[in-house]
Amino acid sequence: MATGGQNFYELYRRSSIGGALTDTLDDLITQNNIDPQLAMKVLANFDRAIAEVLQDKVRSRLTFKANLDTYRFCDEVWTFQLKDVTFKMDNGGQVVSTDRVKIVSCSAKPAGAAA
Amino acid sequence: MENKIPVPTTLPEVEHLINELYKPNPPETIAHIQETLQRLQKSPQGWQLAQSLLARPGDNIKFFGALTIIVKLNTERLSDSDALSVLQNLITWLVHSLGDGSGVIVIRKLCSALVAYYIHYSHTWSKCIHLLIYSLDRNAAVSIEEVEGSLPLEQTIRELDTQKFLAACWFAAALAEEIEKVDTKATKHISLHERVHDNANDVAALMASALMPPDGVSNIASQREAINCLQAWFLYAQRTPKLPLVRMLQAFVQPMTNCLLVEELYETTVELLTDTLNNWQQFFCREHIDSLYVLFESEWARQRYHDLVAGDFDFDAVQFGLFMLAFGDAQMVEMMDTTDTRAQAFLGGLAGLLVAQGYPVAEDKIFVPALEFWSAFVENLVDTVYSESTNPPPWDKPPLSQVMQAVSYSWQKIQFPPQELYNSWDSTDKAGFGDARKDVADFLQAVYTISGLPLISLFVNLTLRALRNSAWAELEATCFCLGALSDCVSEGNSYDDALTKVFGSSLFDLLRQGQGVIPVRARQTCLYLIERYSEYFVRHAEYLPAALNLLFSAVGDRHLALPSSKSIFTLCSSCRRLLTTEIDAFLEQYSSLRANGELDPLAEERVIGAIAAIVQSLSNEEHKLNAVKRLLNMVAVDVTACLQFKSLQDSALINQNDPMILRAFDISQGPASPVLAHEVALQLAIRALRCLCSVAKGLQAPVDLDSDDESTPMPISPDLERIHADVIGILVQLKNLFSSNAEVVDVICTILRAGFSETEPGPFVFPPHMVTELIVSDWQGRIATIVNTASAFASSLNAGRYRQHVVQTLGTLLPWVLNLLHQLPHPEADPELSQYGIEFAQRVLSKRPDVLMSQPSNVLEFLFAFAMKLLNGNEPLPKAAAAEFWTTFIVAKSDDPNVHATLNNAISHFGPLLSQSLMQNIGGKASRSDLDKLSDPLKKLIVQHVYASKWLEAALNDPGFPSDKVSPQDKALFVKKLVSLRGGRATNQVVRDFWLACRGSNFAYAS
Q1: C-alpha closest to that of B413 among B472, B359, B484, B470
Q2: Helical (H) or strand (E) element with B865
Q3: What global pTM score does this model have?
Q4: How far apart are CA B549 and CA B555, in angstroms?
Q5: CB of B511 within 8 A of CB of B471?
Q6: Is B460 exposed, middle or buried (0-12, 13-18, 19+ CB in 10 A)?
Q7: Considering only CB atoms, which chain B residues are within 8 Å of A29?
Q8: DSSP track, B435-461
Q9: ipTM beyond 0.85?
Q10: Residue B572 β-bridge partners
């Protein structure tokens, strides 16, 4: 029941893994191996699974330092634009630098999840 | 696969097939039977078949009959009168099945069939619960007219026997479960949902008869089924929260709470309440919360809590803990109010869940969920305390004492068990315990936001207490917690004063006394603590010698090699300027560590990298080069040994006790028998290269200097030139012998790359001709990696001190790359090489189009054809690289009028071809994830070229266009939109929409 009434964000569909999954589903539909309704269910499951996995299973972490260039909070979504960002990975202290990073951050429970 | 089972023609044959279907048969037999039966179900005789099967004995046969009815209802449309006769039959079969001893699966399947009927024909049976109950009571299907003037529904329900009551519950539950799946927003389903809501009062009457019996006599089976049914209705109501339905369900909170006290009903009820508290907190009103508080304060709850905290982690006990946590989660705002004594008492109970008996995960199953609650609680507390809300919280100070209590409990729980116990755990429990410790670290970081220095002081004092009491498990946990806070601690006297109490204590002395005093795990964590606070040692150099002496004394111990070497690296890197005067001592230390022979390879890389970082900070060039030479000389020992072993015969063996074997292999992987000399040589080569790589990285300047700095380049001394020659000599030798090994190639490339980003001369900042010669020499494998390195090299030249060598270098590298691509049998034969090769060409085109366009015409022709084939191909990464190449090509400009004219001619030539390729892709050939990349060249083409729209129109109307789903008008409109957007961001969406139109509605399932 825990997930029965919850909605999940679709934003991870645009990630590499989400894009690869959608491409694969497209291929399966093209080959008449599945119908679009099943593809839709697979994607809905993906939305749930990736949110849960990222929340529960991912243990890696990193810290970063940056200059905060712009920030805004609109429709329950925080957006941060950072400049001169330095990421420090947890494992081995590897440092990665980049000029700009945009962070889009949504509430862990989408609006209406517990309506 | 051909179905070899003939379609049965008689009822007994069908029954035989059904019985065979449910027997253990080979999968292919079952598949054939299923296919045959499905054909029968879908045939016009399906209705007749279902009716006959339901009249036959045997649960499987009846079940299949009911299933056939569901299939027919879902696939065929009936007139209302036909539908009503199906309904009448279904109810009649249900009544008969209840009386003829049919199994539960038959009754439930018939209930499901009735639900399927309702979903399609609800207008003919709107008061379904009401009529079903009267029908069950009268053992016959009844209509609404027939029940007028009958007994009230409540009384009729009371007169149902248990079997009939359960059947009504199963139907009501299945109804909610199935309706929940029907889209609530679709217009065509609105009336269906309204009718379902109209049945809510009848469902309430049904549930109330079990959960609130007027005579007080309860039936456990009925109550359990009523709660299961409520669970389905809670889910449905949560999705479509209409007030009457919500009110109906709210009336059952108190009866459900009472059911918790009944052992047989506890599990079902606690799960329903917990899930609802977790997912639908608004459902509960004040009255419910009060009654739940009363429940939690009852003797029953006290006993359950006591059992759980005392170490009873049975399913029921853990469920109770989760129930408490769900309630705390739902009441989080109240829990923050220190003046609410009832909430604070409950919060204290939630803190107590953190110290249940047993080690987290391996034994204690409630610790992790409890910690999750506390982390969420503190995060919410932080939000509330620091938010700029117009409604300030109704309390002055947060419940910090409770939070600190939770911190203290968590610290106790993450202490490692005795080694024997820990070793007895399986890998899952060990990993779970480690994860729980990381969760505690996160929790502490959240607490720090509201606590600050007192939290640091708490762990400092706990460290000192553990040292005084020789409590090593406590010391380990304390140092772990203190280390977790290192990222939060800012510079400041008060923080440094607190930390000085630890680093100025007897800790380092005790750690140096070896394992006899402090167990290895605690020593490891303490050594990591030094690394975590390296910034502190920058500010307090007086403690640096003691710390480094300790670390170097530990690095030879195989249990401590990794934590100590990591700390050495971080400390030397952070404090490099403070340590330059000690460089000789460091080199001596490293030399003696090597002489000992058992230095872990990774630890050695870190130590040599740490020393290189100090060398980087030496201001005197001569000292610096001398120190580098000493490091290289030590690495050269391995290289020489490697070459000697490699020169031996192929079959030569080296004794496993040979001292060089210790350097060639990890201690844990040390061979037990003689090893082939060539294998030893390879391992020594890898170790030498990895050490060189670490030196190269250590010598990198710590802060990126301004790459546009136009100051006069510093001269390169003869000593530095000799070092360059020596290092490149090593790389060439090892490459010639081992370039078929992937790791060797990777490390050589990493060594080369280390110098690319440097702006000042250095031992690993090689002159371009040396790098170029190495890159274009013979390699036995991983050629794509070399090309990728060449790409990075080409880019670095444009920004660095060797800018004047760009043309010459690219003049060598570009033909080499293009020749590699030319040797491929087809562009997708080696996708990695194709991708990196085309990326290289793109970078050259971007920065120096003159160099690219000066290539012979046949070479250019090959390159553009190659890039076009990749764009037309199916490999995603080369395709994306090709799209970027064409994007760059379209906008390429040159100050040289001849080059500019060549570029213009080229684009006029390739424009139509490129347009055709893009339109083929966007017309449905490309994958969905390629579209954004493919939009880039399209956008540039529209903006840059006057004939773009003509080319695109021609491409769209080409007979080879992959889709027939879009009309010529659609195509024209598409081009019109593209042109009007003039390369704007909205082009991507227009491209996406057109791709979808070309692919067809089957692909509209994803946005």
Answers
A1: B359
A2: helix B857-872
A3: 0.77
A4: 10
A5: no
A6: buried
A7: 1002-1003
A8: HHHHHHHHHHHHHHHHH-HHHHHHHHH
A9: yes
A10: none
**Rounded to 5°, angle at Cα B688 from B684 and B694:** 145
- Report the C-alpha gap between B917 and B27 in whole angstroms: 46
B841 vs B839: CA distance, rounded Å:
5
DSSP class per residue in B159-193 = HS-HHHHHHHHHHHHHHHHHHHTS-SSSGGGHHHH
The class of domain A11-56 in CATH terms is mainly alpha
Query: Per-residue pLDDT tens for A81-92?
Result: 999 998 887 665
Amino acid at B116: A
In chain B, the residue whose alpha carbon lies closest to the alpha carbon of A60 is B438
Instruction: Assess contact for B613 and B698: CB atoms under 8 A.
Output: yes
> Would you say residue B463 has pLDDT above 80?
yes
Q: Where are the domains of chain A?
A: 11-56, 62-106
Three-state DSSP at A102 gives strand
Distance CA B417, CA B358 (A): 10
B433's tokens = 């315990």
- AA identity, residue B209: S
Give CA separation, B147 vs B132, B137, B140, B163, B352, in Å.
11, 11, 12, 21, 57
- Best interface-test mutation with B: which of A1, A35, A47, A62 has the largest number of B CBs within 10 A? A1
CB within 8 Å of chain A, chain B residues 892-951: 927-929
Taking only the tens place, the pLDDT of each residue in B622-665 is 999 999 999 999 999 999 999 999 998 888 888 888 888 888 88
Confirm or reject contact between B307 and chain A (CB < 8 A): no
Contacts within 8 Å (CB) and 24+ apart, A26-29: A26/B927, A26/B928, A26/B999, A26/B1003, A29/B1002, A29/B1003
How crowded is residue B507: how many other Cβ atoms within 10 Å of its Cβ? 23
> For residues B885 and B373, what is the distance between their CA atoms, to the nearest angstrom?
51
Q: Hey, what CATH topology would domain A62-106 get?
A: TATA box binding Protein, subunit D; domain 2 (2.30.18)
Same CATH fold assignment for domains A11-56 and A62-106: no
How many residues make up chain B in this entry? 1007
